[in-house]
Each structure stands twice: as C-alpha cells, then as structure tokens.
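Researcher: Please translate sequence to structure tokens.
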Amino acid sequence: AYSRNGCEQPNAGGSCIYKMFANGLGQSNLTTDEDTKICDEGGAIDHTLDSYAPTWSPDGSKIAYEGTPSCGASVGKNIWVMNSDGGEKKDLMQDDFTDDYMPSFSPDGQKIVFSSDRDDDVWGYHELYSIDANAEEPLSGLKRLTRSDGVHEWTPDWGVRPNATLAMLPQVPGVMRHFGWLNGARLQEKWFAGPPRVLGEDF
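Model: Translation complete:
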C-alpha cells in the first residue's frame, strides 16, 4: 500500500491510498470519489483529497492511514482504518483541530500507535499515542506514550514480537524506531537492541 499525490489521472489533485502486487502490477485506488460523503452541516468527507501514510495490519485484512476529518470537524487530520479492499472506512478519532499522523499497528492488530499534536504542550510539536484499532467508539483506549517537549516524535514502528513493548525514550532498549528533530537538527534513526523495558503500563 502507498499514497499517490494526484490520485487518478486526469484529475491530478489531492492524495489517495493505492495498493499493488509486489511486482508492481494491479495498482488500484482504495480511496475513490465513490467514498465521498456529503455532511448534513455542509462540507464533505472526501478521501481523495488528503489520504496518506498507509500501513497494513499484521494479518493483512486492514489498512490504517491518515486522512480527512469527519463531518462536524473542519481542520486537521485523523487516523482511519479500512478493509484491504477499501471498504468499511472508519474514523478512529472523530475530533477537530488535531493533526494525527503516521499510524502503525501493534503485532496483534489490536492497537495503533501514531504521532499527534493533540495535547500541544509545546506549540507545533508532536508526541506519540496509541489507540484501539477495532473499537466502535471514537478515541477508545487513547493513551499518550511520550512527553518529549521540544522534540518532534515521528514515524513510530511497532515491533514484530507478539509481546513487543514500545520504548518511550531512545536511550532505553526497546523495539520502536525513533526519529525526530531537535532545534532544527535531524536525530539519528536507530533500532535499540536488547530486551524491552516497560515504562509505565504494559501494552
């Protein structure tokens, strides 16, 4: 799965989620105009405008991605989940004025970790959060994982072991890939070896 700027030609606008076979064949758009929903209060949910960063669930049945706000909201990006064929799209957030980015499934497919500015302790900076992947209610199981004021927390990637634990700080052995920016300088991306150390509640 991947995101394409320009979506389907000749429209050449917005950004859509596509999937294809490993050999490059079978490219298909999972976020088409057919998914557009007109909101009662005006506006629309249009997945062809602002869909990015798809990621597969471990069993290959679901795709999570960052997308447009739902009806009743006007600004920001939300985390969505859909079936692998593009069906049954669900907004896990359904809130307003937050930017939620870069989802990644847990090894058992029950949770999603993502980057967000929703608490905004320091204006414009993002922290890492987790949320239930399969809940019916929005924001179910929402949990803040990092408190790194002044550092962007980006591109989370959950480990592959069934009991994998997220490392909340780059100095602590764990299974999360850590990447960020500090005072305009790029931080090094690393894998931290050794047994994971639980910080706070277990996942």
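Researcher: Any highlights?
Model: The radius of gyration is 17 Å.
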